[in-house]
Every structure is written in structure tokens, then in C-alpha cells.
Prior knowledge:
By secondary structure, the chain is of the alpha+beta class. The protein is built from 3 helices and 6 strands, in the order H-H-H-E-E-E-E-E-E.
Amino acid sequence: MQEETTVQAVQEGELEAPATEAGTQTQEHALPAPSELDQVKAERDQLLDRLARLQAEFDNARKREGKERQDVRDYTVSNTVEPFLGVMDNFQLALKSEGSIEQLRSGVELILKQMEDALRGLNVVPVEAVGAQFDPRIHEALGSIETKEFPDHQVLEEIRRGYRIRDKLLRPALVRIAANPSQISE
């Protein structure tokens, strides 16, 4: 509205039109003052510098996080492998031994116990199998044995042991189950 009043005043001769470089620009479209331009350029330079610093900081944080993740992975693997090194040492000693079959067998049983202890230390426990009722969530049936002595679907034989880590199944137990034709499964 003020612009219209100024334009009317110039047309009526009350005011003189401001002199500009192109002769047609009004005062509103004039270039900013040199000090204002320098201020905007300085602000832009500060923002570009800040952006570059933030990008570098982000890249460094990403690299640091990747290295920390690798360090945690290495630490976890070393803590997991350490209990099994003794087991390997004992297997090597058993292979070098010149004892009787009974001595070798008792040595292997001790190594197996050591291995089970190492797994238990990692919260890995065997899945209950023989004598339990077949559960398809933790057992995998490889066959059935027809019998009248045991209830239908009772696990009679463990072919391969299954394991859990806490509540998570690592692998199911491979089993043979009872098939009792005198019991009707519904």
C-alpha cells in the first residue's frame, strides 16, 4: 500500500523517482549494502565450516562405532573359544597316549565331561530326550519303534543330542519314538 502511494506521488510530480543504475529499479529491489553482503557471506562461510566439521565428526563416530563393534565381537569369540582350548589339548594328549583301550575310553569320557562343562559355562544345555514325551518344537523324529511297553509318542532313543542356549533352541534332538498301536492318538 505504501508502494502505491509512492508511485502515485511520483506520477503526480510531488516526489522525484530515485535514481538507480538501470533507471527502472525501485529502492526495494536495490542491491544490499556492502556491509550486509559481507555479513551474509561470513554467515554462509560459518555454516559451511560447521557443516564440514559435523560431517567429519559423523564419519569419525561411524568409524569408531565399527571398530568398537569389531572389538566386542573379538572379545566375545575369545571368551567363547577359551574353554574349548583345554578340551583340544586333552584330545591331542589322548591321541598321543599309548595306554589300553579302557584307559583311552576313560580319557575320552573325561574330555566329554570337560566339553559339557564348557558348554554349561556358556549356558548351553542339552535338550531332554529319552523318557520325555515327543515335542516337535525340540525333537525331530527319525523313526518310530513299535512297542506296547511305552506310551505312544514317548522318546525311546536319542540319536543325536539337541541343545538350547537359555530358552532358545540351537538344534533339535534327533530321536526315535514309541508307536503303541494299542493307544489311539487323537
